[in-house]
Design goal:
alpha/beta, three-stranded parallel beta sheet, 12 strands, globular, GH, Cellulase family glycosylhydrolase
C-alpha cells in the first residue's frame, strides 16, 4: 500500500477451498471455484518491527483472531533489511522465524502467501544498507543487487517449499514505487528493464519452490500513471496471477465522493481493467489489497463500503480471492504514520472485531455456503491504448475511460474491458464471453 501516491498447495485446512496452484504454478480454476478470503497480516504488537524481537506466542494469538473470522489465508511481510542485512548474509534465524509463522498459521487452518522485498510498507521504505547512501545502486539493474535479491527470494521460497500451507511468493509489496515519480529518490528504469527484473526475480522464486503461486504486485501507477516503467502488460502477463491493489484515496473518493458508485466499484473496475492486457482469457486475478481508509471512508460507513466492494468484486469472473488490508490496527504509540494507516484493521490492537471485520467474515461465510460463479461479462468497453500504454491516465479516476466505465456499470451493463487492438479478434472475444463492444464516447453522459 502506497499512501504517498496521488493522495495516495493443498486445500485450505479448514474447508474445501481449491488448491492454490496447478501444475503450471497458477491458481487452479478460479472461475469454477469459490474465491478465497484472507487478510494482510499486520501484527498487533510492534507492527512489522515485530521481526526485530519476534514473539511466536503473540503471533499465534493474532492468527487465532484472524482464523476466528472464518478466513482461509494471510499475506505476510518479512522486512528485507532484517532478513538480509548484508548482501552476503541472509539470516538463518530470521528465516526460521518466518517458517515458524507459516507453521503456526497452518495449525489454524490458514494458508500463507509471503512477500519478499519489503521494500515499502504504509509510507515507510525498508531498504538494506547495501543499496543506499555510500552503497547506492539501482535496485532494478545493478548486477550485484540483482544477485543479492535473487538469492534472498530463492532462499525464502526454498525454506517454505515443503510447507503445505505455503501459497507462494510475491516479489515485494508495491516495489514498483521505487522506479519513478512520485517517489522522492527513485531508481529510474525503462519498461524493458522492469520486465527483465520481474522475469529474473520470478525465476528465482520458482527455483526455490517450483509450482507455487509466484507473482508480483504493483500499486496503481502501473495502471494509471503515464510513463510509469511497470506497465499493465507486465502486471497481467508475468507471474502466476494478476495482483490488484485497490485504494480509493488515489483520487477516486476525492473526485467522485466517498459514497459514490465509482468508489464502491473501484476494485471491480481494476479487476476488469487488468483483463484487457491478459493473454490468458481466464487468467486469475487476486484482489491482493483493498481497504476502507479513513477519512475517505468514514468509520461508520466502513462496513457498508466493505460489503459493496466485495459484492462488486465477486461479480467479476476469474477472481482468485480477496485479501483485505489489513488484519489489525496499528498501535497509536507508534509514530509518524499517515493518520489513515492506524485504523485500517478489521481487528483492533487488542484483537476485537470491528464492523468491517464482521462484514468481511459474513461475506466469506456466505460465499463458502452459496457460491455460484458469475456469468461472463458480455459487454466490453473498448480501451484505445497501445500494448505498452505510455499514456494511461485516461484509465485513472479523473480519466475519460474511467468515467465511461462507471456510467456503463451504473446502468447495469456489467462491463468488461478490451483493448482496441483485440476488439475485432473474434476468438479472443469468444474466449472471454464478450458479445458486444462499446466505444467510450458512445456511453451516455448523465
Amino acid at each position: 500500500m502506497n499512501t504517498t501516491h496521488g493522495g495516495s498447495p493443498s486445500p485450505g485446512h479448514g474447508g474445501t477451498l481449491p488448491s492454490p496452484a496447478g501444475r503450471e504454478g497458477r491458481p487452479a480454476g478460479p472461475a469454477r471455484r469459490a474465491p478465497r478470503f484472507g487478510v494482510n497480516y499486520t501484527p498487533s504488537r510492534g507492527w512489522f518491527h515485530h521481526w526485530l524481537d519476534f514473539d511466536l506466542d503473540a503471533v499465534r494469538a493474532d492468527l487465532d483472531s484472524i482464523a476466528g473470522l472464518g478466513l482461509d489465508h494471510v499475506r505476510v511481510f518479512p522486512l528485507w533489511p532484517v532478513f538480509q542485512p548484508n548482501r552476503a548474509l541472509i539470516r538463518p534465524r530470521a528465516v526460521e522465524q518466518l517458517v515458524s509463522l507459516v507453521d503456526a498459521a497452518a495449525e489454524r487452518g490458514l494458508d500463507v502467501a509471503v512477500d519478499g522485498l519489503q521494500g515499502h510498507l504504509s509510507s515507510f521504505d525498508f531498504l538494506p544498507s547495501w543499496t543506499v547512501t555510500w552503497h547506492r545502486r539501482n535496485l532494478f539493474t545493478d548486477p550485484d543487487v540483482l544477485d543479492g535479491q535473487a538469492a534472498y527470494l530463492r532462499t525464502l521460497a526454498s525454506a517454505l517449499a515443503d510447507r503445505p500451507a505455503f501459497l507462494g511468493m510475491t516479489l515485494g509489496n508495491e516495489i514498483n514505487q521505487f522506479s519513478g515519480d512520485p517517489h522522492p529518490d527513485p531508481d529510474r528504469i525503462t519498461p524493458g528493464q522492469a520486465e527483465r527484473w520481474l522475469r529474473r526475480m520470478l525465476e528465482a522464486c520458482e527455483e526455490g519452490a517450483p509450482g507455487r503461486t509466484h507473482l508480483h504486485a504493483a500499486y496503481d501507477a502501473a495502471w494509471y500513471l503515464d510513463g510509469h516503467p511497470f506497465t499493465p502488460a507486465h502486471a497481467a502477463r508475468l507471474g502466476a496471477a494478476t495482483a490488484v491493489h485497490s485504494w480509493v484515496f488515489n483520487g477516486t473518493a476525492q473526485r467522485h465522493g466517498p459514497h459514490s458508485f465509482a468508489t464502491g466499484h473501484h476494485a471491480a473496475y481494476m479487476i476488469e481493467l487488468s483483463k484487457a492486457w491478459a493473454e490468458d482469457p481466464h487468467r486469475p486475478v487476486w484482489l491482493q489489497e483493498v481497504g476502507a481508509p479513513a477519512p475517505h471512508i468514514a468509520a461508520d460507513r466502513a462496513a457498508g463500503f466493505t460489503r459493496t466492494t466485495l459484492a462488486a468484486a465477486l461479480d467479476c469472473p476469474d477472481l482468485w480471492g480477496v485479501t483485505w488490508w489489513c488484519s489489525h490496527d496499528v498501535d497509536r504509540s507508534l509514530a509518524d504514520f499517515p493518520d489513515l494507516e492506524y485504523t485500517l484493521g478489521v481487528l483492533t490492537t487488542d484483537r476485537r472485531v470491528k464492523p468491517a471485520g464482521r462484514a468481511l467474515a459474513r461475506t466469506a461465510a456466505e460465499v463458502r455456503e452459496t457460491w455460484t460463479p458469475p456469468a461472463p461479462r458480455t459487454t466490453a468497453l473498448v480501451l484505445d491504448l497501445p500494448e505498452d500504454a505510455p499514456k494511461r491516465a485516461v484509465c485513472g479516476p479523473e480519466g475519460a475511460f474511467f468515467g465511461a466505465y462507471m456510467r456503463l456499470a451504473a446502468d447495469g451493463a456489467r462491463p468488461a474491458v478490451v483493448l482496441a487492438s483485440r476488439a475485432g479478434d473474434r476468438e479472443h472475444l469468444r474466449a472471454r464471453g464478450i458479445t458486444e463492444t462499446v466505444a467510450p464516447d458512445a456511453v451516455h453522459r448523465s
